Amino acid sequence: RAEEGIRWHRGSCRLCGVGCRVELGVKNGQPVGLRGVPQARTNFGYVCMKGMHFWKCMRHADRLTRPLYREKKTGTFREISWDKALDIAASKFAEAVTAHGNDSVAYYGSGQALTEETYLFQKVMRGGLQTNNVEGNPRLCMASAVGGYLTSFGADEPIGGYDDLEKAYCFFIIGSNTAEAHPVLFRRIMRRKLDNPEVKVINADPRLSQTSRIADKHLQFKPGTDLALLNAMAYVIIEEKLYDQSFFSTYATFRKGKEKKEVSFDEYKKFVADYPPEKAARIMGGKVTADDIREVARWFATSKGTVSLWTMGINQRKRGVWANNLIHNLHILTGQLLKPGADSLSLTGQPNACGGVREGGGLCHILPGHRLVKKEKLRNQVEEAWGIPKGRIPPKPGYHTMAMFSAVNAGKIKAIWINCTSPAQSLPNCNLYNKGLAREDVFIVCSDIFPTRTTEYANLILPTAFHFEKTGVYGCTERRSQLTRKAIDPPGDAKPEVWIVREWAKKLASKLNDPVIAQCVKPFDGLEEGYELPRAIWNEYTQKLTKGRDNDLQGATYEVLEQMYDGVQWPAPTRAHALKGGTVKKFVRGMDPMADSEATSDLPYQFYGPAHKDRKLWVWLRPQADPEEMPDAEYPFYLSTGRIIDHWHTMSMTGRVPELLRANPYAYVEINPNDAKKLGIKPGDMVEVRSRRGVNVLPAKVYEGPIEGMVFVYWHDQHPERMINKVTKDAIDPGSKEPEFKICAVKVKRV
Ligand code: MGD
Ligand code: SF4
């Protein structure tokens, strides 16, 4: 009877990158529950606790419902109409462009915005306002994985997907607390192991986490030493001849240095000879022995199928791209790739970091369809698709995230639109960048569903529709695009972003007297915002800009996505292929239509990715490299930060769900019992965690999680005393520009 009158609306989960297929229950126009979809191959009906509860924040009293404006950041917000709000936003951006040039404006978006939203924002910024200052928070999580895939496999995004989990015999989980950050996938790994006791799980992580608890071997080492581990595993694979010579001599070459110089297998062997397990174990410290390294290398190489899984412990590092390369190396050397149950699978943090941002042109150097900004031919293809003059998109990539907020600090950016993200809390060393956000000469628009630490710096706050209050596509970890249809109305005057951008662009066009800006949104004029508008945007993107690209999505129309229980994995160039679910494994002839159409030989695997002209996989010579900031006499501890199971990022959503807040109401610092004893810290004592940049005061959790000499704090808490990004360091990977959230030096004392 409780089910009476409830209609269930299919969509995907709002939160993490697993992309669970769910249904929202709606009764009398209000959300009343959420359940998994048993037919969905992403999650087989399971959802985790935060996924199950997120709908409870949909009607929270804090929801933003009217546009709010204040001239000065010290002033008080007042409600204004949409017309007035968009007029102000257009005037301020137009003024900045006129007075300071096109690169004085910027868009900073999110791997949680729908693909249609990211696509339209970047179209107006690049094609209309002629700036590539288009960035997003995936720079903070996925950029190193992108760099790794491009440099190792020649194409971004993984080859396989979740299907491999049920076929794998060895899981190599490194730098990922899958149990808490990707719980439903972790359940699949656990199930696989419980059903098949011969399956091995290796966990490589400086912290004993919930994930480590199912590991056959947990390698616990000093933060920042896993490049030595990965090279030492390659050493064992070579020493014991566990490699698959026929695989790598057919499909791979060996590369080194900035010049990407090709070298011989012998030279690679010489390089790896510098990492005998005994030496690596000494570098890694902790409890790792040479025998451990030998054993895990054997498991990895000799299993019938090995899947590696990693996230931010590898990506958020000064040498994140290198660490990604070294994982891929192991797969290429051993041929643990492309066959069932074998893959090098980077897990995405956010629900649409792959889809909307990596594929849709949401970063400063890429255009939709994995096109590089700096390539004229590719820019021209986009200009042609948009019907705008050739040469309209500038050739220079815009600011990457940390450069963008440094430019805000320096007053070089005069107007910035922040959508679906809260950099005032999520940027490393945030105190420094918040000074820029506070500048009166920087006009800030925030579009969000709730007030956040970032809206505190805004001039204009625009209330947006939430998930299930609008229609659009998310693309999860495994190249899978899933449609969520609008099921309920947003509260008050909140509007979908696609409507907001379209109306803003029209006003911009008239203020700057520029018909090309109007042209960017003309194809969408007059379309109803709940379904027709996002569908038209999706059509333009997929039909005009993915055709023939490695993420070809032409077959995945809204009509097809509505029919599919769990969406479509690209490439899906035709309707027929999309209706079969798309491509489970890229590059495999007979499975991937592009591997067939792009084939240049009879070989079963065809690496058609755009970045490697030789159409080969590349094994890289990458040395061990220390983090930017090492502990020293003054700051003797490593600090690491990450997620916990109950919360999502800045807690703007999960912090407003009573069940989740009760489960974990505030951040604490995890400290190893031996360190706690030395410092006289007992459980629950208030502890100061201080770096060269800032300080937090938090209760202590004395726990054998972090290795000795390391402390861990979850980063979700918004409280000014417990916002750990005041303490973290803004060092970045020189290749991917991703910050090293995972490692910096701190001192710790009881207060
Ligand atoms: P979120 O809380 O996900 O954090 O950091 P953020 O992106 O800043 O912000 C999403 C915002 O979108 C919320 O304010 C929410 O209210 C709003 N929102 C929800 N739905 C909608 C919608 O439909 N439309 C609009 N316009 N807004 C909506 C994430 C970032 O943080 C990332 S991606 C990573 S990987 C980093 N991880 C990390 C870490 O591991 N450690 C530390 N110390 N810091 C980190 N920061 C990074
Ligand atoms: Fe949502 Fe991720 Fe949980 Fe699945 S695992 S229900 S996608 S938060």
Q: How would you portray this structure in words?
A:
The chain is an alpha/beta fold and 751 residues long. It has four domains: 51 residues, Phosphorylase Kinase, domain 1, CATH 3.30.200; 250 residues, Rossmann fold; 205 residues, Dimethylsulfoxide Reductase, domain 2 (3-Layer(aba) Sandwich), CATH 3.40.228; 114 residues, Barwin-like endoglucanases (Beta Barrel). It is built from 26 helices and 29 strands. A seven-stranded mixed beta sheet has the order 5-4-19-18-17-6-7, with helices on both faces. Strand 26 and strand 27 form a beta hairpin. Helix 7 runs antiparallel to helix 10, helix 7 packs parallel to helix 13 and helix 16 packs across helix 18. The mean pLDDT is 97. Iron/sulfur cluster binds next to helix 1 and helix 6.
Question: Between the first and last Cα atoms, what is the distance in angstroms?
Answer: 55 Å
General form: globular
Strand content: 15-25%
Give the helix level as a range of percent.
25-40%
The CATH level-2 architecture of the largest domain is identified as 3-Layer(aba) Sandwich
Taking all Cα atoms into account, the compactness measure Rg is 25 Å
The structural class is alpha/beta
Name every ligand kind in the structure. ligand MGD, iron/sulfur cluster
- CATH class call of the largest domain: Alpha Beta
Count all strands and give the number. 29
Largest sheet: 7 strands, mixed
Number of domains: 4
Q: If you consult CATH, what is the topology of the largest domain?
A: Rossmann fold
- Model regions low in confidence, pLDDT < 50 over at least 5 residues: none
Kindly report the oligomeric state of this protein. single chain
Mean pLDDT: 97
